[in-house]
């Protein structure tokens, strides 16, 4: 297992205590190294031939830094190294795991794929970003409704997705969904 991140500046830095952006500037690779305790490499160096699968975690940083979904929605662009990584694993018929908001990367890069970001309606107020499912469909992909503790496997494309924090749920349910996504990726590897 190796961890990679793009060597780019963050779109913005958020003070998570206050929930608002700061004037501070940070680099995605440097911040990722902080979270990974330093054991990380530049995404530009990733070679799909050296790995059995790839998993992209989620979080709003995906929508701001790995692509421009946070600003441009379905008209977003995907970071060149993220796009190249996804294309390389897909071309090699190796599994791709995506959670939280990161399934939009597959929806943008692989028209016709199947993904989930949870539900397509804000069921019981638990899915406040349910309109993402409609945007995925507008990109020519199929959104599959799943509960937070489930994942979806697009067998034809070897793409496994789960909604994670796209659902307001207890952490143990989010953990379970991510766990099923990882298990399914490993089964396909």
From TrEMBL:
InterPro entries reported for this sequence: Class_I_gatase-like
Coiled coil: none
Protein's name according to its UniProt entry: GAL3A protein
Source organism (scientific name): Chlamydotis macqueenii
